[in-house]
Design goal:
- The chain is α/β, with parallel strands linked by helices.
- It has two domains: about 140 residues, Oxidized Rhodanese, domain 1, CATH 3.40.250.10; about 110 residues, Rhodanese-like domain (Oxidized Rhodanese, domain 1), CATH 3.40.250.10.
- It has a five-stranded parallel beta sheet with strand order 1-5-4-2-3. The protein has a four-stranded parallel beta sheet with strand order 7-6-8-9, sandwiched between helices.
- α7 links the parallel β6 and β7.
- α4 packs across α8.
- The protein is globular.
């Protein structure tokens, strides 16, 4: 299964028995708005997953603003969504696919391969004239023992080792945050020393659909297993998806910049 599917594909397969659809709408700063929007209208049959309640773990001193959920939390989510080993899981949101890409990553981390992000998300579905529903359908919880693939992630110390080795480290935030010109969220401005910048939204068109493959982050050579990060490990997943589509096995630094700066000894760069 491809990592991206079209509106046409989903329309044709909407009532497939093995299909699971997950709505990942979420608004940073207004955390209840995502579920409210889901209730107002979602793709038929879609279940809901919340960035902070379902797709993130408990925030601590380190680990960043959106730590990865632990195995028990992920297990609970997979079973609540009714995902079986033969399920094809389609993920979408309403804002350039970042939240959907986060769950795309987490399902891969949990060992589930057949999952994809809906190209263009909810906006494209509506734009093609397809219906929404407000009903929250009940699903039968699954029984699907997951196994975490920790080869997909790196720790803060792994990032330091990558700096020594000269491996590519990609900062997925907007250029003005990367440069330290502004920092609206985290207490320190700048980026991890040695990182290059590729803004995650540069993979997408203004209408929230994905650009052609040659226009995405994977168009350039990034060496062996580049490391990708953002502010808290969410929007970086869009770059990860683009790199995987290009055949590049990149790794996520889950805590990302917000974890990096939680260690006083860690240096930052601005430029």
């Amino acid at each position: 299964m491809k990592n991206l599917v079209s509106i046409e594909w989903l329309s044709d397969h909407l009532y497939d028995e093995q299909l699971v659809i997950v709505d990942c709408q979420f608004e940073l700063g207004n955390p209840e708005n995502g579920y409210t929007s889901y209730l107002k209208g979602h793709i038929p049959g879609a279940q809901y997953a919340d960035l902070e309640k379902d797709l993130s773990g408990e925030v601590g001193e380190h680990g960043g603003r959106h730590p990865l959920p632990d195995q028990e939390q992920l297990q609970t989510l997979v079973e609540r969504l009714g995902i079986e080993q033969d399920s094809k899981v389609i993920l979408y949101d309403h804002e350039y696919g970042a939240m959907a890409a986060r769950l795309w990553f987490l399902l891969g981390f949990a060992g589930h391969k057949a999952r994809a992000v809906l190209d263009g998300g909810l906006q494209a579905w509506r734009g093609e004239g397809h219906k929404l529903e407000t009903k929250v359908r009940q699903v039968t919880p699954s029984s699907y023992p997951i196994s975490l693939d920790k080869s997909m992630i790196v720790s803060m110390n792994d990032v330091k080792q990558a700096q020594i080795e000269g491996r590519t480290i990609i900062d997925s935030r907007a250029s003005e945050r990367y440069s330290g010109e502004i920092e609206p969220i985290d207490p320190k401005a700048g980026h991890i020393p040695g990182a290059i910048n590729y803004f995650w939204k540069n993979n997408l068109n203004d209408n929230k659909t994905w650009k052609d493959p040659e226009e995405r982050v994977g168009e350039k050579e990034h060496g062996h297993e580049p490391i990708v990060y953002c502010g808290s490990g969410v929007t970086a997943c869009v770059n990860l998806l683009a790199l995987q589509e290009a055949g590049i096995h990149a790794k996520l630094y889950p805590g990302s910049y917000s974890d990096w700066i939680s260690y006083e000894e860690n240096q930052i760069e601005t430029k």
